[in-house]
Specification:
Keywords: Aminoacyl-tRNA synthetase, ATP-binding, Cytoplasm, Ligase, Nucleotide-binding, Protein biosynthesis, Transferase. This protein is α+β, with helices and mostly antiparallel strands. It contains 42 helices and 51 strands. The termini are far apart.
């Protein structure tokens, strides 16, 4: 292509030279006396012919630079794809009714289905088949973590500003656009100049700020919007900054990648994996990049989904046992030698590329092969997929080798997957910054004598010198490298003291010689300690999906039109179900409920709530269900990581939620941005009202939630003060009961009356004042667009109502569902997973006609009977009681059938998960808890050791949300219902005069018109009265952010009699909102119990998870170390993997009893013991009963049990 373009440019230049010469000849002939007219006419004809040839050459060049090679325009194809994708709601710009935000996109129902299917296949292809561990870490990340990783200092792009308007642009984009524009549009460009522009594009990533600035000046490149001069380029950090906690003293960012959460948890993952290498940890989640000038749709967004794998390996052995499975794959590769030689990608055999050293090692090669298989099986065209090796100038200094899986689409070759050998850089960086050694070890067959540097901190002297900081100083000393330690020893020997940087303290301390001993000693070592290397495949899911959409798109002709078609492979197009049978024996539920009852009531076996809770939490953290985030950096309150088993429990809960609600109820699904512009949350009320009351320690500045201090004081007095008089006890109980109703002044008065002080220091505290609980950030590089991390997922659905209504063929009722992260900057987070700063919400917005809230399927749940707590019972001081759902709706206790239907469905969901029905109640909101606009609200509350915890809110929010966004955006969010016959009605008609408004407001005319048309009848009549009285009125246009002066000739407002064929109305919303973390924690408590060991000398912990929820469905144990049994176990391992059953193969020599106990503690429901070559035993966790099954049957039996197609009781009866 390049060679063709160059030759066409040369040909055009030659034609131009010929035209110029002939033009000069014609002018000379005309100027010369005595030349005949025929001679001149002949010369003119030659000139005309040359111009025709020049025009033809210009067209050929224009076609070459602006077409795909088949004559089609480059712009036409992506435009057709994008139009189809937006029209069919695969994805759309976020907050479209507010004019959108560049670089933020929402996935609509079909797009959500595609992304869900792609991620499900990714998990099967990598996580399950490669037996990877999974993590789920927070998006919010403290600055110290990203300082260690290098992102704070180096995660930048070069920015330039319009010197007059302040508009920001990415410097390299301006230069690249200029060069591409000249190449594509300037047909007079000489081959040399064209080569220069191509060279600039090719080296763009290597140019420094100074070099980039010089080129911008050389080409006189200006602001593309105004033509103004631009500033010199300077670096702009691409992370979204925020502040963690109310004090503002802990800086944080929204993570730019998911990997750091895995790196900081290496020690826990290594321990979980039995201290064995290699192993891989995987994570899927949102990442954030505050692009300077986002473009190219999903290919360059400010918020996107990453799927990353961190494969930890011994740096001295990067072989891979399964490399042979991919070694014969042949596909397009683009090694750096070919790039430097100006050649193209070529087909290469993977095994040969590794053996020749083109690819650095087998493990890197193995993942390149697995990525190739993943992408091509998804539907990516293998002829438009290449693996390009990074050039030296692209590689980080620490990287051993890096390759990108690039997919060709209409925007060129797009990097979609990076596969890098990152060496041991990341773990070393975090070890150094945190003072915690992130290392692995390899045991020697025999001890080795080595000379070793020994660092021996004197804990006594350090304790005297640094008191509470002693542990951090010790950890920092022990984490020193040999080089650092020898440097310290030299300084101490020379001067007797040295300044020592302790990163976890954020300062230097003065070390003296008596505080640490550093010496070289000969020691016998039994193991080698080393920092593992990391092989990292990182998948940009949005980029892969966009390329897949382009590769699957084509048009076919009908008789009179072009039809658009997406040719998805069945893998991507298919919907999946986890089945409708839910197996859980009554016996298991009773066992869990009994243990929980004893624990939370503090009777029976004498166990207190706190002891029970501590036993649960200790087990959960020890077995890595969840742990505090960034633990090696002393953690951050209110942030938690889900470890491998917790991750799978969460995934299983969400999969069942999707089955139970989305699939069975035929809901549409959305996936919206977490980053939200201020105007959206201003309309929803969050900017003004999403607050808690805070007090500060007047000396230290420590922050506390005012109502928590008051509640804790009252509860403490009630529980611990045995001398408390009945009147005083009644007073404290009353304060607790009305706490939510107290104003800031009333809470302040109570805090002073009881002389409540800082619980940490005893200092006086400030008066209470409101603190907004949203994490604030800034969108874009200018800093002029304030935004927040969403406090709930619902607003993304509300602002897309019009698109969803159209997608649903303008029919009501319908429901839209969304699962995603939400953020709440808690003042004083506590109670583990129950009150956190980042959490997963699953929300449903069911849109319904406010005049008809019946539900066709209500009869399916009407006979359910369970604990309810209506407001009348609460106000009368009574307890929750068992009630029949149908009766509560018919009596009006529950406002309407649709609300009642969802209450019933929530009950079924929770109990089928494993929540004890006797510890579940539905409590109606009291009048003082209800929003003024709400028709009715109920909370599904689950009892655990913390008391009754709200886990699901089910509310009839009326039409408030849609009306609020209609008013703020100027876009009417309404539905319509057709009448059987037209009706004559008197109606207020608002008729803006677009001509007059255009003269007055020019480019803002459309927004003024939309705001006028969105007025309520009350607002319009008020405006009419003012215009009739004064002839003009100030009118607030929210989308402009200001008021405008309207005159009488600009709008007509009148009451008219009209025939209406349909009723236009704002739908009501019924919203079930699920706090997934809270549900999971309560499920952990409800599933936990202890039982005596076989010898009865200790209590063993058990999680009695239903198979539906269990993180691991079964285990495979060879009874003894035997080659025959190991062979059978390996065969079962492969068969279970092929069947998609998560399992563990434990072939250690540990006793079978201990292996059972280990897996019972993880909640594994079934254990397969290989004790024969023809049959095995299957053991059920809670009853400990066993059955014998033939090897041919075992997988099908376990599959039926774990899918809920049969029960253990059914299997026993066989």
């Amino acid at each position: 292509m390049a060679a063709t373009e160059d030759s066409l440019r040369r040909a055009l230049a030659e034609k131009q030279t010929a035209v110029d010469a002939q033009s000069e000849a014609v002018r000379a002939l005309k100027a010369r006396p005595g030349v005949s007219k025929d001679e001149i006419d002949a010369a003119v004809e030659i000139l005309k012919a040359l111009k025709v040839e020049h025009g033809a050459a210009a067209k050929r060049l224009q076609s070459a630079v602006s077409s795909n090679g088949d004559g089609s325009r480059k712009e036409a194809f992506p435009q057709a794809v994008a139009n189809t994708l937006e029209r069919r709601l695969f994805y759309i710009p976020s907050f479209k009714i507010y004019r959108g935000v560049a670089g933020l996109y929402d996935y609509g129902p079909p797009g959500c289905a595609v992304i869900s299917t792609v991620l499900a296949f990714w998990r099967q292809h990598f996580v399950l088949e490669e037996k990877m561990l999974e993590m789920d870490c927070p998006c919010i990340t403290p600055e110290i973590v990203l300082k260690a990783s290098g992102h704070v200092d180096k995660f930048t792009d070069l920015l330039v500003k319009d010197e007059k308007t302040g508009t920001c642009y990415r410097a390299d984009h301006l230069l690249k656009d200029y060069c591409k524009g000249k190449l594509e549009k300037d047909l007079t460009l000489s081959p040399d100049k064209a080569a220069e522009f191509k060279h600039v594009i090719s080296v763009l990533d290597d140019l420094s700020a100074a070099e980039l600035g010089a080129k911008l000046k050389e080409y006189d490149i200006r602001s593309p919007d105004t033509g103004n001069h631009i500033s010199d380029p300077y670096p702009f950090n691409l992370m979204f900054r925020t502040s963690i906690g109310p004090s503002g003293m802990l800086s944080g960012y929204m993570r730019p990648e998911t990997a750091q959460g895995i790196f900081v948890n290496f020690n826990y993952l290594y321990y979980y994996n039995g201290n064995k290498l290699p192993f891989a940890a995987a994570q899927v989640g949102q990442a954030f990049r505050n692009e300077i000038s986002p473009r190219q749709g999903l290919l360059r967004a400010r918020e996107f989904t990453l799927a990353e794998i961190e494969h930890f390996v011994d740096p001295e052995d990067k072989s891979h046992p399964k490399f042979v499975d991919v070694a014969n794959l042949e596909f397009l590769m683009f090694p750096r030698e070919e790039q430097l030689a100006g050649k193209s990608a070529k087909s290469m055999v993977l095994g040969e590329a590794v053996s020749k050293g083109t690819i650095n090692n087998e493990t890197l090669g193995y993942f390149i092969g697995r990525v190739y298989l993943f992408l091509t099986r998804l539907g990516i065209d293998k002829d438009r997929l290449r693996f390009r090796q990074h050039l030296q100038n692209e590689m980080a200094h620490y990287a051993a080798d890096c390759w990108d899986a690039e997919i060709e689409c209409s925007d060129g070759w797009i990097e979609c997957v990076g596969i890098a050998d990152r060496s041991d850089y990341d773990l070393r960086a975090h070890s150094e910054k945190s003072g915690v050694r992130l290392v692995a070890n390899e045991k020697f067959s025999e001890p080795r004598e080595v000379e070793k540097l020994v660092i021996s901190p004197s804990k006594r002297e350090l304790g005297l010198a640094f008191k509470g900081y002693q542990r951090m100083v010790v950890e920092a000393l022990e984490a020193m490298s040999d080089e650092e330690a020898l440097e310290m020893k030299e300084a101490l020997d020379d001067k007797g003291e040295v300044d020592f940087q302790v990163c976890t303290l954020g300062k230097s301390v003065l070390m003296k010689k008596n505080m640490v001993s550093i010496s070289m000693e000969r020691k016998k070592e039994h193991q080698r300690v080393f920092t593992p290397s990391v092989i990292e495949p990182s998948f940009g899911i949005g980029r892969i999906i966009y390329c897949l959409l382009e590769h699957s798109f084509y048009t076919s002709k009908s008789e009179d039109e072009q039809l658009n078609v997406f040719r998805f492979p069945p893998l991507v197009a298919a919907s999946t179900s986890i089945g409708k049978a839910y197996a859980r024996t009554d016996k298991l539920g009773v066992a869990a409920a009994k243990r929980l009852q004893y624990a939370v009531s503090g009777n029976g076996d004498g166990c207190s709530k706190e002891v029970f809770r501590q036993a649960v939490v200790n087990t959960l953290e020890r077995r890595l269900f969840y742990i505090p985030s960034f633990k090696i950096y002393s953690g951050v309150a209110g942030l938690y990581d889900y470890g491998p088993p917790g991750c799978v429990v969460k995934s299983n809960v969400l999969a069942f939620w999707h089955q139970h609600f989305v699939l069975e109820e035929g809901m549409v699904v959305m996936k919206c941005s977490c980053v939200t512009p201020e105007i959206v949350l201003k309309a929803s009320g969050h900017v003004d009202k999403f607050t808690d009351l805070m007090v500060k320690d007047e000396k230290t500045g420590m922050c506390y939630r005012a109502d928590h201090l008051l509640k804790d004081y009252c509860k403490g007095k009630l529980e611990k003060d045995l001398t408390l008089l009945p009147d005083k006890a009644a007073e404290f109980k009353h304060v607790i009961s009305v706490l939510d109703d107290l104003s800031a002044e009333e809470i302040g008065a109570k805090l002073k009356e009881y002389d409540i002080r800082s619980p940490d220091t005893g200092n006086h505290i400030s008066d209470p004042y409101p603190f907004n609980l949203m994490f604030q950030t800034s969108i874009g590089s200018s800093g002029m667009l304030p935004g927040y991390m969403r406090p709930e997922t619902a607003q993304g659905i509300f602002v897309n109502f019009e698109e969803l209504y159209n997608f649903n063929c303008e029919k009501l009722p319908f429901a839209a569902a969304q699962v995603g992260q939400a953020f709440r900057n808690e003042i004083s987070p506590r109670q583990g997973l129950l009150r956190v700063r980042e959490f997963t919400l699953a929300e449903i917005e069911h849109f319904v006609d406010p005049e008809d809230k019946s539900h066709p399927k209500f009869v399916d749940v009407a006979n359910l009977e369970f604990l309810m707590f209506p407001r009348e019972e609460q106000l009368a001081g009574k307890s929750a009681k068992s009630m029949v759902l149908g009766e509560t709706v018919s009596k009006g206790t529950i406002n309407n059938e649709t609300l009642g239907y969802f209450i019933g469905r929530v009950y079924l969901f929770l109990t089928r998960l494993g929540i004890d029905k006797d510890s579940l109640r539905f409590r109606q909101h009291l009048p003082n808890e209800m929003a003024h606009y709400a028709a009715d609200c109920w909370d599904a509350e689950i009892e655990c050791s913390y008391g009754w915890i709200e886990c699901v809110g089910i509310a009839d929010r009326s039409a408030y949300d849609l009306q609020a966004h209609s008013e703020k955006s100027g876009v009417r969010l309404v539905a319509n219902g057709k009448f059987s016959e037209p009706r004559e009605v008197e109606k207020l008609v608002i008729t803006p005069s677009k001509t007059e408004l255009d003269l007055a407001f020019k480019g803002n005319q459309r927004m003024v018109v939309e705001a006028l048309e969105a007025m309520s009848e009350k607002e319009a009549l008020k405006m009419k009265e003012a215009l009739d009285d004064k002839g003009e009125v100030d009118f607030q246009v929210y989308t402009l952010g200001k008021s405008v002066l309207l005159k009488k000739n600009m709008v007509s407002i009148s009451m008219e009699r009209k025939k209406e064929h349909q009723r236009v109305f704002t739908p009501s919303v019924i919203e079930p909102s699920f706090g997934i973390g809270r549900i999971i924690y309560c499920l952990f408590e409800h599933s936990f119990y202890t039982r005596p060991s076989q010898s009865e000398d200790e209590q063993l912990n058990v999680f009695c998870f239903a198979p539906l929820v269990a993180p691991i469905k079964c285990t495979v144990f060879p009874l003894i170390k035997s080659q025959q049994f190991d062979k059978v176990a390996k065969l079962l391992d492969e068969s279970l993997t092929a069947a998609g059953i998560s399992h563990i193969l434990d072939a250690t020599g540990t006793s079978i009893g201990k292996r059972y106990a280990r897996t019972d503690e993880l909640g594994v429901p079934f254990a397969i013991t290989v004790d024969s070559t023809t049959s095995v035993t299957i053991r059920e966790r809670d009853s400990k009963e066993q059955i014998r099954v033939s090897i041919e049957e075992v997988v099908s039996v376990v599959k039926a049990l774990t899918d809920g197609q049969t029960t253990w009781a059914d299997v026993l009866r066989r």
